[in-house]
Specification:
The chain has 475 residues and is α/β, with parallel strands linked by helices. Helices cover 29% and strands 21% of the residues. Strands 1, 2, 3, 4, 5, 16, 19, 20 and 21 form a nine-stranded mixed β-sheet that branches. An eight-stranded parallel β-sheet has the order 6-9-10-11-12-13-14-15. It has a two-stranded antiparallel sheet with strand order 7-8. α7 packs across α9 and α9 packs parallel to α10. It binds dihydropyrimidine-2,4(1H,3H)-dione and zinc ion (ZN) (2 copies).
Length: 475
């Protein structure tokens, strides 16, 4: 038994002084001071053998849920795999206040999705220290593969990722429409990476043909228009078959507007953005930076400050419902450098699993752009709702898994890759100030980060239970 004493609980809908009691890995009671006077009797709990966590001056919140991570993720075209495996990646996650991830299982062309599931489970189970699930990346929309969709949904894997660009993974409009139809009618959610592949391919060729091969030319090869168009197209296809849809990593005002308009019309469309699009801008692609610019090569790329501001507005207004990391860490010194002579050979992606909550807290809550409750909603409750982990996860309700973080809201550090726990060798946020790192992280009632130090046994994470996803379950 654990008593978290004298903290301020923050959930998606309230913020108040309260004690939290944990028993058998679940939230057993949340007792506000307004009901108990000075809180629960510490000595009585000690006599019963409870561990007491003194949370005075701290906020107690549901653990973050990161539904967009790429751990041990292979990029076949470039013959590289992301730098974090499920051990280093989930340790980094826990140290950044994350208690569950939804990663990816990749169905290669010609492969069964069930086979991809089994392969992925065998990679995760021995290593993860927090609870996990994955989306199936569908690259081959064959009819026999469509028959596997209800099986995966029944098995607790109700989300399907689609790339509208990326040569060896791309699903065309016919495939996307079929997947939306089958997924949507079975309680599944399609999760789409939206960029117009034809336009991106053409722009890349134009740049390379003109000798523009450096990393700074990555961003102009993928301008906001290509994202906005593909976002609108994916939404239109989903609406044709009345299917729910989640748009991955919205980075531009145009894409955010398409999501807002669809939602205003009643369509079950939700969207995420990521901290890099909220706290960085396209100045990171200044050619003066030389090859170091490769550290910021991700797709979609960072945008101008106007787009960044539009994303904050969309978060505050509710038209973007979640913030995930898109953690795709590639080491600079031996992985990113493969693209030294050709920016298309730089593996796309940035690390961010450990800094997601701190950056959203510091640049969102501390600046007054979003409330503490909205922070919890964006980082934990809505990701759980969108991807079917709610109500087991993403709340402090009685009966929910005791996945929570205890954070000193006044502590702040300077982000330094050397102090983070990922196996990557840099942080795109190096030198930025950030608070919100957890003093304690608990997973199913077990302390896994104790005063900032990871203490969990490798492989203790479990498969997260997930339910069907429908228009009615989406925020
Ligand atoms: N883009 C993606 O779509 N996924 C991983 C990282 C990236 O940059
Ligand atoms: Zn993507
Ligand atoms: Zn991604």
């Amino acid at each position: 038994m654990i008593l978290i004493k004298d903290g301020t609980i923050v959930t998606a809908d309230r913020m108040e002084r309260a004690d939290v009691v944990i028993e058998a890995g679940r939230i057993a009671a949340v007792v506000p001071d307004s009901r108990s006077g000075d809180g629960l009797d510490r000595q009585a709990f000690e006599r019963r053998g409870a561990r007491i966590i003194d949370a005075r001056g701290h906020w107690v919140m549901p653990g973050g849920i990161d539904t967009h991570t790429h751990l041990a993720h292979p990029i076949d075209r470039l013959r590289v795999t992301t730098a974090d495996d499920f051990h280093t990646g989930t340790v980094a996650a826990a140290c950044g206040g994350v208690t569950a991830i939804v990663d990816f299982s990749l169905q290669r062309r010609g492969e069964s999705m069930l086979h991809a599931r089994d392969r992925r489970l065998s990679e995760i189970e021995p290593d993860a220290i927090i609870d996990y699930s994955f989306h199936t990346i569908v690259t081959d929309v064959r009819e026999d593969v469509m028959d596997e969709i209800p099986i995966l949904i029944d098995d607790g894997f109700p989300s399907f990722k689609v790339y509208m660009t990326y040569g060896d993974k791309i699903v065309d409009d016919a495939g996307l429409l079929r997947l939306l139809e089958v997924g949507g009618s079975n309680g599944g959610l399609v999760y789409a990476h939206c960029e117009n592949d034809c336009a991106v391919t053409w722009l890349i060729e134009r740049h390379l043909a003109a000798g523009k091969t450096g990393p700074a030319f990555h961003a102009p090869s993928r301008p906001p228009e290509v994202e906005a168009e593909a976002t609108q197209r994916a939404i239109m296809l989903a609406r044709l078959v009345d299917a729910p849809l989640c748009i991955a990593h919205v980075t531009s005002a145009g894409a955010a507007r398409h999501v807002a308009e669809a939602r205003a019309a009643g369509a079950p469309v939700v969207a995420e953005t990521c901290p890099q699009y909220l706290v960085l801008d396209d100045s990171v692609y200044d050619a003066e930076g030389g090859f170091e610019v490769a550290k910021f090569v991700c797709s979609p790329p960072m945008r101008t400050a106007d787009h960044r501001d539009a994303l904050w507005d969309a978060l505050a207004a509710g038209s973007i419902q979640q913030v995930s990391s898109d953690h795709a860490p590639f080491r600079y010194h031996d992985q990113k450098v493969a693209g030294r002579d050709d920016f298309t050979r730089i593996p796309n992606g940035l690390p961010g699993i450990e800094t997601r909550l701190p950056l959203l807290f510091t640049y969102g809550v501390k600046t007054g752009k979003i409330s503490p409750q909205r922070f919890v909603e964006l980082a934990a409750t809505n990701p759980a709702r969108i991807f079917g982990l709610h109500p087991c996860k993403g709340t402090l309700d009685v009966g929910a898994d005791a996945d929570l973080i205890v954070v000193d809201p006044d502590a702040e550090v300077e982000i330094d890759a050397a102090a983070l726990h990922s196996a990557v060798d840099y942080s795109p946020f190096q030198g930025m100030r950030a608070g919100g790192f957890p003093t304690w992280t608990l997973s199913r009632g077990e302390v896994i980060v104790d005063r900032g130090e990871p203490v969990a046994a490798r492989g203790r994470g479990r498969r997260a239970e997930r339910r069907r996803i429908t228009a009615a379950t989406l925020p």
